[in-house]
């Protein structure tokens, strides 16, 4: 029982469900309305699990491995699911099948072993060479007569289905006789796959034994009518490889010799591999090297299905390998790989891979070598997906001569597509292979005598087989009868190139015809055709006239009665639209055609157009472009771009707050031949400027432009359609106005212009130019200051610095006189603090306040050490002011080597025009220091107002100031009062002053000083001085 359970596990692998989802291609020559549908009406019998075509019987041989009846002579006997094999004749109106004689009735030993046949799965694989039938039961068991051990060896019945004689029939049991001697052959599974080859000299039988030698697997070969059995060598396989899980054969050798191909889906460390053996070699030497999975994906089951066919028609068999458990983006999608014969004793992987798209689809589980379905001498391949969709899908790949794409998917079939096939389930699980070694010309899969191979497909879940007939393929040759050398010259207005429509004149191509013929036509057919103008262009440059006289770019018509002799349509004209600018690209006229299908009577086969050929042609008409006569139709242009910036009022910079518009002028010069389909792209920073207007000098019509053709978030691109053509030595001058948005000092406004043409550009490097316009700010930053009091004297005989002296207040006014705003500015104040190491001023407080109307944060002053003498500021001496007449000339004290100053730095935020800030510095006079000196001093405080963000206009007021404080000594001697001045001296002085004032007034009057200025003159004068009335 252990052996039986292991064999059950093996067979279950053969029942992997397949689901596939790919784009459906519904068309080509397998007819879906006239199929022959068969069933044994035994639900659950797996009718259709395997199928083969027998041309001698003109029937389909069908395996039903869970069937429970067999036929001996004319007697039908029920059994315990031995499995059944049916013969289903293909003829008009027939859908009946009958049990095939000789199955399980070839030798007496088979008859006498009913226990061994219980659940043996007879019909799990069937094969036919059109005379003989090979039917296999991989779960057949034999019993050891000594120890009664049961061996799950499997067997195959080989018999002549035509001749009732059994003289050449035999059972093929390659493992039975050696199972009792070699334990590794106690479990073989003979016949899970099978094949027949025939030559003039012999017929050989092949059966896969994938469970032999602990799952290593082999292929068993029966020669000499079953009298000799051989196995393929095991040198290239290992335990659990399952070699022989699938087998196929073909003429892969130069001499036409046959090669046996076996799949080992668990080989190569579960990646799968395929091995090929030379059948002519006594020891079955390897042909070519092992074929390994291109995906190298473990568990893909590469080699679980095989197909051998001459898909490119070179006389050598090619190989198709399935990997039904391959996972790409989803588990178990499945894949099929294509290998071409290199005609040198090996195969070449074409890189052509077909991959399923459904999760758990197992695409490629079944592959059918179904022969040439369309009569082009290249064999075709069917791939089944028995559970795709809901009930299965079949994909038909047709052979071609292309090395890159030797197979092309041309038809997809689902059960619902087939008339009467909606109930099929498990559709595509099996196919009837084409027998590649015919002994007679009629040994084909053509069951309806229509000269084309037919397609047999099994649906074992529903218990159905359908034979689909191939439609005759007709080759239709079509052409546009037109002068292919015609060139369109828009300047040629001669009468033979002009057509009239609705009173309007057009350039045209006259007397065009469509012509067709069917070289091998036995009867005339109708051809449906379509003429299309400018198919690749969205904007059409021409039109046709339909039967109602309406304009159209596409016309579809039918030409009747087309046969082997060429037949043409009535002539027609092609109209070319006026004012066409796009003349660089040639004008194309395409013609497509197909066989106009008719509704076929039931069971009748109607032809179809050969869609393996390109059923279209295109005529191309270049425009005359006015290039040089060097024999080259392509214009070799040389566009050169130069870009300049124009600021209103002159200047080279954008003045912040003043400049509102900038114009970018791009000059495109063509130093080569005519340039066609041209455009200009100018990249600009969208946060700084925005395009408002585009002009092209001497441009006819409306300028086409878009403010952004790039879609970029940081920069945008103005796209401008230029003239077409830009003629040789021509100049295109484009002016683009930009409004100035948000620019800041220190940043440049950068532009990049590129000229693009469809003509051949000889020097692409000079098609690009860049422009960078600096942004500057112009602001008059002024500073003024004062000190309170201006004059002060200290108290005599103060000897301690702890005595709080008089209060001194320095006040500095910082104002932006415009015209631009100062985004950031700096204040630097220096106040003398020490002289000779001794404090002279004790600075106590620094205050920064905004001017009137300023609501934002004005800024801040950096921290400094205040009140360094730590004085009690509540005990201040009264400030002693001194009369001016008491002031004496004193020594200046400013920042220098012997005088140390406190440096105060303040950072101001945005100051617009006319806004200001005030810094007040409060200090006390250190009287003890001055009392030591006994002499007066002039203490000078310094302030500077500056900004890295603005530029000072010419003639601006000073941005720094010195503020003196006169500290006078209390030890000054008072001068004695002089004698009173006589009255007449005072009178003379007054009269002289009046005379001088009168003279000055007279001079000013003559100079026009007292004339009133007109409105606006004051503002104009202020602007000339660099101080316009702009608030920003």
From TrEMBL:
SMART domains noted in UniProt: Int_alpha (SM00191)
Signal peptide: 1-27
Topology term for the membrane: Single-pass type I membrane protein
Start and end residues of each Integrin alpha second immunoglobulin-like domain: 632-775
Domain called Integrin alpha first immunoglubulin-like: residue spans: 470-596
Biological process annotations from GO: cell adhesion mediated by integrin; cell-cell adhesion; cell-matrix adhesion; integrin-mediated signaling pathway
Alphabetical UniProt keywords: Cell adhesion, Glycoprotein, Integrin, Membrane, Receptor, Repeat, Signal, Transmembrane, Transmembrane helix
GO molecular function: integrin binding
Name listed for the protein in its UniProt record: Integrin alpha-2 domain-containing protein
